[in-house]
Specification:
The protein is mostly helical and 178 residues long. The chain is 66% helix and 0% strand. The chain has one domain (8-170). The longest helix has 26 residues, at 4-29. The N and C termini lie far apart (41 Å).
């Protein structure tokens, strides 16, 4: 029998996997020439999202996040059902939400004329988690996520995001360490 503590952390991990994989895969496999906004400028003269958001990054992020979720759901069906009876579909929604959340943050950063790579505390770290959670709402089981799980998701993400970005910077995958 699973206790509360185990259930608490298993659900968090299973929700984070598709979002983290989607967000990091978009960075790793992104690039390409076709910008998400096709180079269109907003009425303020700034790009909608910027050069760093490409269709290749969007599609690879969603595909990788969904695939990661499908693998986890296949390998651990009992645990996946603790998050959603449709964990594979939830993984797709979490991945789409993660990518959308990141793009929306880019949109707001461009509106404030922040250059690409300029850090915004909490927005840069939590944008993809917020997007994923919003997109995932229709498929979460009734009691997930709890307030405390949302706090844990945010705190874990703040720590992991900072560490992962520093590592990506050291590996020359990113131009800035944040």
């Amino acid at each position: 029998m699973m206790d509360f503590f185990q259930l608490f952390w298993i659900q968090i991990i299973l929700v984070l996997i598709p979002m983290y994989v989607a967000n990091s895969s978009a960075m790793i496999f992104g690039g390409g020439k076709t910008q998400l906004d096709f180079g269109i400028k907003w009425r303020d003269g700034q790009p909608l999202f910027g050069k760093g958001k490409t269709w290749r990054g969007v599609l690879s992020g969603i595909a990788c996040g969904t695939l990661a979720g499908a693998i986890v759901g296949f390998a651990f069906p009992g645990y996946a059902a603790l998050v959603s009876p449709s964990y594979g579909l939830l993984s797709l929604l979490l991945s789409m939400g993660a990518i959308t959340g990141d793009a929306v943050a880019g949109f707001f950063k461009r509106r404030n004329k922040l250059p690409p790579g300029e850090p915004v505390l909490f927005l840069d770290q939590l944008d993809f988690v917020i997007g994923g959670m919003v997109f995932g709402i229709p498929l979460f089981v009734a009691n997930f996520p709890s307030f405390y799980q949302l706090i844990a998701l945010a705190l874990i993400t703040l720590l992991v995001h900072r560490s992962a970005n520093f590592l990506a910077f050291k590996l020359h995958l990113k131009r800035v360490p944040w």
